[in-house]
Design goal:
With 180 residues, the chain is mainly alpha-helical. It has two domains: 1-93; 109-180, Orthogonal Bundle (Arc Repressor Mutant, subunit A). The protein contains six helices and no strands. Helix 1 (14-44) packs antiparallel against helix 2 (53-108), helix 3 packs across helix 5 and helix 4 (128-135) packs across helix 5.
Length: 180
């Protein structure tokens, strides 16, 4: 297991949801164009009906509402997608910083490859039984490895181990974050 294997997964359906929103926006725009054509036909006498001012006024107001709605939805959707891209970039930076910090501390503590794997799984929140199952070993072995990790890190347990990384990341302020 490598550190990059443990990188957090982003929501895979974001692009699918954005596609759906764009599709819905296209449908709304198509309806608006159809309705705009209908109003134009009524106003300029292109259709079979004469001009009915009350009906046409209502249609004009509805078309104006649809046009404004399409524009506002497009602006908001574009804004949300840009914000999502910035958030994804920041998450990658934070994830990369976290895994660099893990790697550096694991090296400083001189953890063995097995201890590195166990430490990573423990930091991810897996129980001793889950770690033992994944590593195909006994819980006693995992418990002993965890104790060795805690001793090398100078902590008494998993919460303190995790807090070491969180405190260090917060102290750095993730200064590597890209400007958004």
């Amino acid at each position: 297991m490598t550190f990059t294997d443990a990188a957090p997964n982003t929501a895979p359906d974001v692009k699918s949801r954005a596609r759906t929103l764009w599709w819905l926006l296209a449908v709304q725009a198509g309806c608006t164009l159809f309705f705009l054509f209908d109003v134009s036909a009524d106003l300029f006498g292109w259709g079979d009906q004469g001009i009915g001012f009350d009906d046409d006024l209502v249609e004009i107001v509805v078309v104006a509402g649809l046009v404004i709605g399409v524009v506002l939805v497009a602006i908001e959707l574009r804004s949300l997608l840009k914000r999502h891209e910035r958030t994804e970039a920041q998450l990658k930076v934070a994830s990369g910083a976290f895994f660099e910090l893990l790697d550096q501390n694991f090296a400083d503590w001189a953890l063995t490859p097995s201890e590195r794997d166990v430490a990573l799984l423990a930091i991810k929140g897996l129980s001793l039984a889950e770690i033992a199952d994944i590593r195909n070993t006994k819980q006693g072995t995992i418990k002993a490895q965890c104790n060795a990790i805690y001793q090398k890190a100078g902590v008494t347990g998993r919460p303190q181990l995790l807090s070491l990384f969180i405190e260090e990341l917060m102290a750095d302020g993730l200064s590597m974050a890209p400007a958004g």
